């Protein structure tokens, strides 16, 4: 696993030795960031939130590609140790790491985020719970976009507060691009 592009291009990332963390594949990350590079809001200068961060690979890729602020949220101790190592190895001291349950974020301590990526364990129903916590919260900027990674055949029923903007499949992964319904499409 490595950083694909940007200032840390080609740098290798650590991953936990156990099987509880399933990092987003390089291929899927490359496709995701290709979409984000041409989307709205722009990744360049965005505030990026990575929920269920695992290894931190997605958030660190956003940092490498020019996100203005990156916050990683993880609660698993082994994953946190790996994320701290990856931040240190990349020299990404500006990346924030919060040890917190992504389904119960509480109040945000800073400015809201433009782009939110979440990659909960497949088939866990944690995505729906995390989305419920984001609606009406101070974590989301008014024009925020949320990307949810699911297993390719996993279903996620979106509540009426969310609007599906796009959906893409990459091997075993599927990305849902959504926004708060009040924003429209």
TrEMBL record:
<dbReference type="InterPro" id="IPR002052">
    <property type="entry name" value="DNA_methylase_N6_adenine_CS"/>
</dbReference>
<dbReference type="InterPro" id="IPR004398">
    <property type="entry name" value="RNA_MeTrfase_RsmD"/>
</dbReference>
<keyword id="KW-0489">Methyltransferase</keyword>
<dbReference type="InterPro" id="IPR029063">
    <property type="entry name" value="SAM-dependent_MTases_sf"/>
</dbReference>
<keyword id="KW-0808">Transferase</keyword>
<dbReference type="GO" id="GO:0031167">
    <property type="term" value="P:rRNA methylation"/>
</dbReference>
<dbReference type="GO" id="GO:0008168">
    <property type="term" value="F:methyltransferase activity"/>
</dbReference>
<dbReference type="GO" id="GO:0003676">
    <property type="term" value="F:nucleic acid binding"/>
</dbReference>
<protein>
    <submittedName>
        <fullName>16S rRNA (Guanine966-N2)-methyltransferase</fullName>
    </submittedName>
</protein>
<dbReference type="Pfam" id="PF03602">
    <property type="entry name" value="Cons_hypoth95"/>
</dbReference>
């Amino acid at each position: 696993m490595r950083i694909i592009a940007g200032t840390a291009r080609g740098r290798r990332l650590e991953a936990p030795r156990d099987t509880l963390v399933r990092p987003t594949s390089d291929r899927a990350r490359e496709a995701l960031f290709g979409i984000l590079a041409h989307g709205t809001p722009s990744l360049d200068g965005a505030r990026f939130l990575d929920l269920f961060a695992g290894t931190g690979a997605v958030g660190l890729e956003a940092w490498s590609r020019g996100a203005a602020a990156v916050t990683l949220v993880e609660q698993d101790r082994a994953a946190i140790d790996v994320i701290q190592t990856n931040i240190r190895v990349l020299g990404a001291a500006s990346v924030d790491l919060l040890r917190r349950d992504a389904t119960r974020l509480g109040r945000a301590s800073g400015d809201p985020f433009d782009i939110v990526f979440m990659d909960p364990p497949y088939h866990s129903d944690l995505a729906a719970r995390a989305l419920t916590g984001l609606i009406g919260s101070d974590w989301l900027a008014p024009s925020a976009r949320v990307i949810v990674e699911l297993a390719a055949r996993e279903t996620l029923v979106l509540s009426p507060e969310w609007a599906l903007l796009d959906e893409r499949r990459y091997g075993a992964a599927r990305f849902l691009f959504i926004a708060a319904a009040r924003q429209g499409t």
